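Posted in: Structural Biology > Protein-Ligand Complexes

Title: Requesting predicted complex, guanine in pocket

I'd be grateful if someone could produce the 3D structure tokens for the following input. Sequence and ligand are given below.
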Amino acid sequence: MPAKLIDGKKISADIRKNLQKEVQELTEAGMKPGLTVILVGNNPASRTYVANKQKSCQAIGVESTLIELPENVEEKQLLKQIKDLNKDETVHGILVQLPLPSHISETKVIETISPEKDVDGFHPINIGKMMTGQDTFLPCTPYGILQMLHHEEIPIEGKHVVIVGRSNIVGKPAGQILLNENATVTYCHSKTTDLASYTKQADILIAAVGKAKMITANYVKEDAVVIDVGMNRDEDGKLCGDVDFEDVKNKAGWITPVPGGVGPTTITMLLHNTVKSARDKLVLRN
Ligand code: GUN
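-- Reply #1 --
Done. Output follows.
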């Protein structure tokens, strides 16, 4: 039997409907959620991601502002821009699109964003809160994965989650978030020897490597849940994931498509975090 599809678009639509209601309530209470995105330079992929984020904000009534800075902007100037936004009462979320040009320190940029407005969940304070299971902004891609698993009522507790890829944005926090849900987590990466020997043990396999169609059926256990975080172009220039969908769909129990899987849920959780930031501020004010 072919795998069941985890429809990230549909799941997102359900979550966004609820968020839209909450945005309306917050707006009526004088706390319209606002997200400011900073885009440095002209990376075409970043530009597309940012445009999608803006469009999604507008669709549910979140105030969306884009600040564009040239490729050669000085680090000092970018940090000053962030500090101004930290003080701006109308801004509840600040997102600096990564990657940044090499003359700018991503670490410094992330650490300059106020943890209360860090809707990416990248600030070390928020990472620490995530690790200790405290209330915080969870990084959007792994948070979206968690929502998809919950939505499909896929059990996590006691399951073996194998993650391929150890980025700060996806792999590492995905493991932590699922560990918090009582999964047993294995991290694999580019230096792992005999990758398939680990991935074949996965009840839930998360592919976040950035290599087109790398995960074939040989890497997957029968009936496993396969989550594809990849966003690549295949040999024909067509969008594809890290998973060879056509090969794996006949072996997996569940699978996320690309596009229409992890991508939409990532943006949905960015909206969720922005709304949460505004809500937390309203609670503090009242
Ligand atoms: N670049 C790729 N993914 C992300 C993300 O989730 N947040 C930011 N800020 N930049 C990214």
